[in-house]
Amino acid sequence: MILYPELCMMIDGERVTMGARDSHPVLNPATGEVLAHVPLATAEDLDRALAAAERGFRRWRKTPAQDRAAVLQGAARLLRERVEEIARIATLEQGKTLAETRGEVDMVANLFDFYAGECQRLYGRVLVRPAGLRSTVIKEPVGPVAAFAPWNFPLSNPGRKLGAPIAAGCSVILKAAEETPASALAVLQALLDAGLPGDVAQAVFGVPDRVSRHLLASPIIRKLSFTGSTQIGRHLLKLAAEDLKRTTMELGGHGPVLVFEDADTQKALDMMVAHKFRNAGQVCVSPTRFIVQDSVFDGFVQGFSRRAAAIKVGNGLDPDVVMGPMANPRRPEAIDQMVKDAVARGATLHTGGERIGNQGFFYAPTVLSNVPLDAAIMNEEPFGPVAIINSYRDEEAMIAEANRLPYGLAAYAWTRDAARQRRLAAELETGMLTINSTAVAAPDAPFGGVKWSGHGAEDGIEGVEACLVTKAIHEA
Q1: Which residues are within 8 A (CB) of 190 and not within 5 positions of it... i.e. 6 or more apart?
Q2: Domain segments of the chain: what residues?
Q3: Rounded Cα–Cα distance for residues 177 and 204 (Å)
Q4: Separation between Cα atoms, residue 20 and residue 422, nearest integer Å
């Protein structure tokens, strides 16, 4: 039997439980059953969190780099020790397989270890000046950060939101998703158990618009970090602009995958099918539009459809399951509408296209081909287990289709032609590009997009830099 923890908020180092507060039900997406209720913050709770964040920032910004690093390293160690417990909690409330949630725990631990090293590499510089003059450039923490994390990666999203500000010397108020609160709390608890002061990082939950308006209206908050949809990102940017707050925005995508006739198509199929259907396609960098050269199109569609149809779907706690449910009841309905719209407009459905079972939020791995450009799924991020495969005649047409949409988060390409690889790297409008691989993210690599997919980056040295401001000092 897997126990689901009692839920709370963490404000100023204190566990804040339900009391008379409103609450939100947390569902098991494999069964639809209620696991628990998470308390929702009142205005008084948010004011208390803001006051604590302001106080915590004054303390943490002066904390030596080696002490900040020790907290991050300690949290990484605790996460690895607690991996099975945390992974099972994340699977219970989000639905993805245990293999995936274990991977998330490892990702957060690796990221914390990387940021621990960056704590001691926040360098400035001394400028060349005539005798008697001195000019230096230093980096300072930007201030308290309001961080908003979605439900699709219930561990790694909170890890990203917490790790970089803590490394930089900032305080953080984390507003994680109400659908997956226990996962976010587990990441924060590892930091607190490793010695992080309670007023430096806090977690609140609540009605998203109410919480965001309250936090971003406060002059205490100096930076907004958001991962989520482009629509909500626009709204939060407007709120942040009122006080000219710094922003990092990791928004939606519609990942193109360019498959050329010279590619190793069997390797591409083996890797991309698994990558497409991980987390039931609920991934911002999910490969979605497969842009395939004419000469290999038919075989690619057949191979993709055969592999997708063989995927075992079920409860993520089952070790034999490859794809779990979607995370909430809204997603299967939204995907079903998109698939039906595409078929009605002339697309070919090869496999899937329907819900599975009579409980939980399952949707079959789905493959569509010959999807017209006016179909909704060709223009809006599906965020689900659907692959779109269309044929194109040549490189120019394929690049044009990849760049057609205003999104630019992640792109994939499969080709053995080295000159073409360089052309793709230059011409594809994307924040991240992977060629002959599925590796998009790494602790030491920036993670972020361009155009409607946002600005700024998480991970890598860029993730810490986004939490710093630059000061020039001139002395005579």
Answers
A1: 75, 78, 79, 82
A2: 9-251+453-475, 255-442
A3: 9
A4: 60
Please state, in angstroms and as integers, the Cα–Cα distance from residue 380 to each residue in 253, 257, 303, 342, following that order: 9, 16, 25, 12
The answer, as to whether pTM is greater than 0.90, is yes
- 155 close to 101: Cβ distance less than 8 angstroms: yes
Segment holding 136, helix H or strand E: strand 134-141
The CATH number of 255-442 is: 3.40.309.10
| 9-251+453-475 has CATH 3.40.47.10 classification | no
**421-441 pLDDT tens trace:** 999 999 999 999 999 999 999
Distance CA 349, CA 370 (A): 9
Amino acid at 66: Q
Inform me whether the pLDDT recorded for 3 exceeds 90.
no
Q: Is the distance from CB of 364 to CB of 354 less than 8 angstroms?
A: yes
Contact call for residues 349 and 368 (beta carbons, < 8 A):
yes
Sign of the alpha-carbon torsion through 272, 274, 275, 280: positive
Nearest residue to 221 via CA among 150, 149, 148, 155? 148
Residues with catalytic function:
250, 284
